[in-house]
Amino acid sequence: MQKRFQHRFTLPAIITLLVLAILGSIFGFYQMTQTTTYPENNSAKVMGVLIDQNRGYVDFDSLSQADVDFVYLRSTQGKSYFDDRYLENRDRIQGTTMDYGTVQYFSDQSTALEQFNYFEDKVGTKTGRLPVLIVPAVETRSASYLKSLNQFAEMLIAKGEQIVLSGIKLADRSYFTNQNIYYMTAKAQLKPTDKNYLFWRYTTDGRVGHMDGMDDLTMYAFVGSQASYDRFLGKE
Hints:
Elements: H1 10-33, E1 47-51, H2 60-64, E2 70-77, E3 81-82, H3 86-93, E4 99-106, H4 112-123, E5 132-136, H5 143-158, E6 163-166, E7 181-185, E8 197-206, E9 217-222, H6 226-232
Parallel strand pairs: 1-2, 2-4, 4-5, 5-6, 6-7, 7-8
Antiparallel strand pairs: 1-9, 2-3, 8-9
Helix pairs in contact: 4-5
């Protein structure tokens, strides 16, 4: 009879361990959803996010206290789209410690001049301390499209703006020769030959911890130290 009961505690122990494992997994997942998404190598010192009208009302004061140093605000695309919350977000973010910049999505459905005039009309001169970020609004970039994109960038530079281009292949950089044009990379590691990269877009599915509505974010990191970031923006 003794042999019959020697394992009577085995099943309850297994069940207890399974319950603890499940609870631990749930807690770990909860913690993950409540923490800010950092770059994998965690070397970034200066981080930022992209904000557009789909984000709704954004508490910029809370955002500025959550390891976010800068924000890019979506503005125009082509000659007819303007983000409904750009002006409101631009006004409110200036009451925080964060830097901000303006994003333009460059279309292939209108000319560089048409897009420049629309950008000027809607955004004006208050584009922020950061360089204007231009994002191609098309996947396939022909030579004529890249030339038009360069014309748009040159028009902004002529009025005193600095430019950051996103999504430009190294082979296509010959279309852009102005020294006031910088680039954004999606690569985790840059080679010594990768010149003029200013920002790293390290995720398009990030989040800012402990803030409602701050998930599925496009997030950026400055390529360099806090000191070099401050120096670039003329804070020193």
